TrEMBL record:
One of its GO terms (cellular component) is nucleolus. It holds the Pfam family WBS_methylT. Keywords: Methyltransferase, S-adenosyl-L-methionine, Transferase. It comes from Rhinolophus ferrumequinum (Greater horseshoe bat). Residues 118-193 form the 18S rRNA (guanine(1575)-N(7))-methyltransferase Bud23 C-terminal domain. GO terms for biological process: rRNA (guanine-N7)-methylation. This is BUD23 rRNA methyltransferase and ribosome maturation factor. Residues 176-186 have a biased composition (Basic and acidic residues). The keyword Methyltransferase applies. One of its GO terms (molecular function) is rRNA (guanine) methyltransferase activity. Residues 176-195 are annotated as: Disordered. InterPro entries: Bud23-like, Bud23_C, SAM-dependent_MTases_sf.
Length: 195
């Protein structure tokens, strides 16, 4: 990318560096920071001397110093597992940040996104993740029983291909973050035979 920028004679200066070795800017230089899919690469050890926890702490402590007091850093990441996410958040808090993890579309496997929202200075409210849940669905409470419900009995409630089944399936797809056509009066109707 740097070679392409040099070929195009872009305005401004170019900087090549490893963010695991720190950020080379003066303290208090930036009002905010946005990172997309970069932080999780600090968890990989490319050399024998690379220790992921130290590289993460060096990055977060230098990021904390280059941000002004009260600034935000929002880092989108795709952790491999929960241990990696825990390591990243622990090192960020150890460096002085406050905040936490926000998850968009937590019910979906493909559309799920993790955002590490960090604040340098006094902690403010943590934003809510995107979730397409309506007020009616939030109002429903959970009922717990000690007995096991067999799969066939539990599924007997909705007849397959009925209007209720189609609406439930569309709501499930919306919660997973997929694009779904809006509900109309024709939703769940049978098509008439053509021939």
């Amino acid at each position: 990318m740097l070679d392409a920028a040099l070929d195009r004679d872009t305005e401004g200066d170019l900087l090549l560096g490893d963010m695991g070795e720190g950020i080379p800017f003066k303290p208090g230089s930036f009002d905010g920071c946005i990172s997309i899919s970069a932080v999780q690469w600090l968890c990989n050890a490319n050399k024998k001397s690379d220790i992921p926890a130290k590289r993460l702490y060096c990055f977060f402590s230098s990021l904390y110093s280059v941000l002004v007091r009260g600034a935000r850093a929002v880092l989108q990441l795709y952790p491999e597992n929960s241990e990696q996410l825990e390591l990243i958040t622990t090192q960020a808090i150890k460096a002085g940040f406050t905040g936490g993890v926000v998850v968009d579309y937590p019910n979906s496997a493909k559309a799920k996104k993790f955002y590490l929202c960090l604040f340098s200075g006094p902690s403010t409210f943590l934003p809510q993740g995107l979730n397409e849940v309506t007020d009616e669905e939030e109002a429903k409470g959970s009922t717990f029983t000690t007995e096991r419900v067999r799969y066939k009995i539990a599924k007997r409630g909705l007849v397959r291909k009925s209007r209720e089944w189609v609406l439930e399936k569309k709501n499930r797809c919306r919660r997973q973050g997929r694009e779904v056509r809006p509900d109309t009066k024709y939703t769940g109707r049978n098509r008439k035979p053509r021939f």
